[in-house]
Amino acid sequence: MGLHERRQREKESIRASILQAAFNLAKTEGWASLSIRKIADAIEYSAPVVYDYFENKEAILFEISLNGFHNLHIELLKAQKKHDTPEEQLKAIVDAYWNFAFNNKEYYQLMFGLGMQCCGKGMMKEEFSSFQDMIYECTGEIIKKNGSNPDNACHMSHALFSAVHGLISIMMMRNDDIPSTMNKETLDETVSSFIKSL
After folding, report:
1. Could you read off the pLDDT of 159-180 as tens digits, one per residue?
2. Is 62 helix (H, G, I), strand (E, B) or coil?
3. Nearest to 31 by CA among 51, 68, 57, 53
4. What residue ranges are annotated as transmembrane (predicted)?
5. Crossing angle of helices 57-81/86-103, nearest 10°?
6. pLDDT at 139 over 80
7. Distance between CA atoms of 65 and 107, rounded to whole angstroms?
8. CA pair distance 144, 128, nearest whole angstrom
């Protein structure tokens, strides 16, 4: 391995360590307490080294959020591929989204700015809208099968996304006084009613 390749690999390793340290700190202390100094201490480098790789904390959070959206996208695709009909695909996609949110709370909170400032300033890769796009695709297919008005697909799919995201947000921000079963049952009922309405 040449000197250039060795240095490149070392840079990639430090960059990955910064991201992992930030995520680990968020899991133990919360996103709000994250700082460049704490990240630097965790990887045993000085703060200026962290700034060599990322402009500021916002840039680190943005990169981590992209990882979250990428991981979510993979889970949604897995769920969709297990079913053939758009109705079953839609149910599976919504379930996968719900499960991702509660199995990866730190990611989800960062991705959507729950209890904190949302990062990224609107700059997101295509995975950002994958859930909405997949809902829209399934909704359009169901509407087509039923011979309903295709012009309703966009409005209806946006309404379902809002309902799902709203339920998750309520659960995450008020999980002490709301039973999870009630909200999952509400989610399932919402999806079933949504499909029937198409």
Report:
1. 999 999 999 988 887 766 666 6
2. helix
3. 57
4. none
5. 140
6. yes
7. 6
8. 26
C-alpha torsion sign, points 184, 126, 150, 138: negative
Return the closest-CA partner of residue 116 out of 156, 64, 70, 75: 64
Measured CA to CA, the distance from residue 101 to residue 169 in angstroms comes to 9
**Which DSSP symbol is given to 83?**
-
Rg (CA), the chain: 20
Paired tokens of 83: 């079913």
Residue 101: helix, strand or coil by DSSP?
helix
Calculate the CA dihedral of residues 93, 98, 100, 104 and round it to 10 degrees: 170
Q: What are the tens digits of pLDDT across the range 41-63?
A: 999 999 999 999 999 999 999 89
Interatomic CA distance for residues 68 and 114, integer angstroms: 14
User: What is the residue whose two structure tokens read 């916002």?
Assistant: 58
**Alpha helix locations (H) across the chain?**
3-29, 36-43, 47-53, 57-81, 86-103, 105-112, 130-146, 153-173, 180-197
